[in-house]
């Protein structure tokens, strides 16, 4: 059996309750949370994953290599209910676009060599390229978690907000338009909430993130070369007397 097809029976422990999950080596912990943890312990909660020795596990880590690295198939999930109140928030910036392609090495080389983006990550999970201000995440069809894996489809759009809990309450008010478990997931540099928006026959996945203290700020002078789309209406139309 190929290593990528090997299955793992892991246990997610929330308080005194154990929830088993069977996943493939290249599945990620986000999938384990969705498949094993009941909705009432995810919706409206911040989830942190740790090993029994309190070592950090993030939702986008591979199950197989994480089990091998830490030597455990039991993971502690801390589910903390949100306690904030609804209120205003701002979507500050477009953060990244994630796409699925048929030939990831070729796409990596194109965006690096031809377009001039810098490669910040390139491993069996994904390729990340950046200009410093925004990033492009590239998945291959064999490993595209939470996606149908069809090439030439975007995987998700990522946005940065200033207050993710207030964003959560706002999104909950639009439950007729978006689909989500409304779970806040801990990552190394951010807290994130994923949702799906249906438009006709197409479903788009969106990620809203709040960057954690210690990771905020951009170390680049590129902003002086950017166009400010907030300066006014974009483009010219000669209609209605304009």
Structural summary, described in words:
This protein has 242 residues and is mostly beta strands. It folds into 2 domains: 3-81, Ubiquitin-like (UB roll), CATH 3.10.20; 91-211, 2,3-Dihydroxybiphenyl 1,2-Dioxygenase, domain 1 (Roll). The chain contains 4 helices and 14 strands. The chain has helices at residues 29-36, 63-70, 104-114, 164-172; strands spanning 7-14, 17-24, 45-50, 56-57, 74-81, 91-101, 118-122, 127-130, 135-140, 153-161, 178-179, 184-186, 190-199, 202-211. Strands 1, 2, 3, 4, 5, 6, 7, 8, 9, 10, 11, 12, 13 and 14 form a 14-stranded mixed sheet that branches. The longest helix is centred in the middle third of the chain and has 11 residues, at 104-114. The model is unreliable at 234-238 (pLDDT under 50).
Question: Roughly what is the average pLDDT, rounded to an integer?
Answer: 83
Main sheet summary: 14 strands, mixed
- Broad CATH class of the largest domain: Alpha Beta
Number of domain units: 2
Helix fraction?
10-25%
SSE topology string: EEHEEHEEHEEEEHEEEE
Observed structural traits:
single chain, 2,3-Dihydroxybiphenyl 1,2-Dioxygenase, domain 1, 4 helices, mainly beta, 38% strand, 14-stranded mixed β-sheet, globular, 242 residues, Ubiquitin-like (UB roll)
Structural topology:
Elements: E1 7-14, E2 17-24, H1 29-36, E3 45-50, E4 56-57, H2 63-70, E5 74-81, E6 91-101, H3 104-114, E7 118-122, E8 127-130, E9 135-140, E10 153-161, H4 164-172, E11 178-179, E12 184-186, E13 190-199, E14 202-211
Parallel strand pairs: 1-5, 3-12, 6-9, 10-14
Antiparallel strand pairs: 1-2, 3-4, 3-5, 6-10, 7-8, 8-9, 11-13, 12-13, 13-14
């Amino acid at each position: 059996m190929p290593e990528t097809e090997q299955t793992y029976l892991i246990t997610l422990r929330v308080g005194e309750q154990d929830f088993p999950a069977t996943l493939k080596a290249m599945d990620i912990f986000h999938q384990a949370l969705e498949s094993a943890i009941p909705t009432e312990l995810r919706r409206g909660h911040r989830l942190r994953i740790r090993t029994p020795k309190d070592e950090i596990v993030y939702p986008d880590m591979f199950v197989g290599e994480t089990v091998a690295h830490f030597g455990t198939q039991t993971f502690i999930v801390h589910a903390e209910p949100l306690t904030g109140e609804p209120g205003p928030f701002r979507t500050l910036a477009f953060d990244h676009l994630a796409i699925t392609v048929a030939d990831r090495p070729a796409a990596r080389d194109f965006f690096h060599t031809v377009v001039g983006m810098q490669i910040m990550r390139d491993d069996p999970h994904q390729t990340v390229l950046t200009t410093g201000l925004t990033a492009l995440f590239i998945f291959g069809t064999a490993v595209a978690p939470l996606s149908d894996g069809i090439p030439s489809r975007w995987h998700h759009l990522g946005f940065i907000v200033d207050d993710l809990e207030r964003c959560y309450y706002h999104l909950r008010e639009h439950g007729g338009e978006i689909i989500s478990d409304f779970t806040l997931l801990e990552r190394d540099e951010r807290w994130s909430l994923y949702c799906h928006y249906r438009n006709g026959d197409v479903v788009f996945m969106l990620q809203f993130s709040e960057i954690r203290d210690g990771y905020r700020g951009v170390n680049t002078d590129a902003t002086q070369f950017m166009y400010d789309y907030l300066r006014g209406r974009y483009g010219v139309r000669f209609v209605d007397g304009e």
